[in-house]
Amino acid sequence: MAAILTIRDLRKTYDGGFQALKGVSLDIEEGEILALLGPNGAGKTTLISTICGITTATSGSVSVGGFDNVGQFRQARALIGLVPQEITLEPFTKVLDTVTFSRGLFGKPAKPALVEDILRKLSLWDKRDSRIMDLSGGMKRRVLIAKALAHEPRILFLDEPTAGVDVELRKDMWEIVRELKADGVTIILTTHYIEEAEAIADRVGVITGGELLLVEEKEQLMARMGQKQLEVQLTAPVEAIPEALSQHNLQIVHGGGALLYTYDARAERTGITTLLNDVAQAGLVLADVQTRESSLEDIFVGLVSGGQAVKDATAGDAA
Question: From CA 90, how far away is CA 304, in angstroms rounded?
Fold first, then answer.
C-alpha cells in the first residue's frame, strides 16, 4: 500500500542546542494504525508537532499526501486531524457548536449530517447541547476527536488519547480507533500504555532520545524479539542449580521453588525435552510447569534500554 506520510531525515534543534529529533525517517501507509512508543522526552510530541506544522523543523522534509508540509502547508494540514495530549476546549461552548466551528476553520461548508454522524459514533450526540465544562474528562477527549475529524482528514494523530482515562473508557476508545481505521482513516498514536499498542496497532515504532530505533509490524516484532520462558516448579526447593543442569542456563526463582528456562520458540530445537530429562536425572521432582511469552512491554523495555545497539542490529538486519 502507498505511503500517505513520508518523513525524511527530520531534525529539530531548539535554542540552547537541545536536539529533540535526530534524523527521523519514516513512511506511514494509508489506512494503517501506527503506535509510537517512547519514554517521556523521547521526541514523540515534537515529531507530531513538526509534521502538523506547529513546530518548524531545523532540517529534513515531510510530505503529507504528496504535499510538502512547509511549501504547501494548507493542502498538507487539511489532510491532518490532530488530537492533542492536553485538553484545550472552550468551557462555555456547546459540543455541537465547537465541532461545527472546527470544520469551518478549514474552509469546509456546513455539513450537519456529517457532524451528527461523527457525534453519534463517539457517543456524543445526546451531549450535543451540553457545555464543555459539564462533561467528564473522557467525554472531553471524545470531543477533541470529533473536532479533529470534523473536516474529514485522511490522517489522524492521537497524542496520548487515553491519558487519565479509566480502563473501561480506554477500551471504548480502542474500539473507536478501530472503527476509524475501517472508515479508511490513517491513525498515528503516541501512548504510554503498552497494552494499547498491543491491542490496536498494525505497526509499532520505538523512539527514544529523538531517534527512531525501529518501525516494524507488531506481530513480526513480537515474533522476532519475543522470548518464551518455561518455569519448572519443584516439589522441594533447591539452594543451587545442580551441576547436571549447568549447561541449561537456568535461573532459580521463587526462593528456590522453581527453575526458569528462557528459550527461542522459533529455534529448530527448544531444548525443553532435554531439560526435563536432565531435571529428572538430577533427582529433582516436578510439581508443575508453566510457560509465558514476552509481551510488547517486555520488548519495549529491552529496546529502550538497549538503545543504539538495538538500532545498529536492526540496520544490520535490513542490510
Answer: 38
The CATH code belonging to domain 227-293 is 3.30.70.100
* pTM of the complete model: 0.73
Domain residue spans in the chain? 3-223, 227-293
* C-alpha–C-alpha distance, residues 298 and 284, integer Å: 30
Instruction: Tell me whether residue 156 is exposed, middle or buried, using C-beta atoms within 10 angstroms of its C-beta: 0 to 12, 13 to 18, 19 or more.
Output: buried
How confident is the chain (319 residues) per 10-residue block, as mean pLDDT?
90 93 94 88 90 94 95 94 89 96 93 94 94 92 93 93 73 85 92 78 88 82 67 89 87 89 71 86 87 62 57 46
Class in CATH terms, 3-223 = alpha beta
Classify residue 194 by its DSSP letter. Answer: H
Q: Could you tell me how many residues make up the chain? A: 319
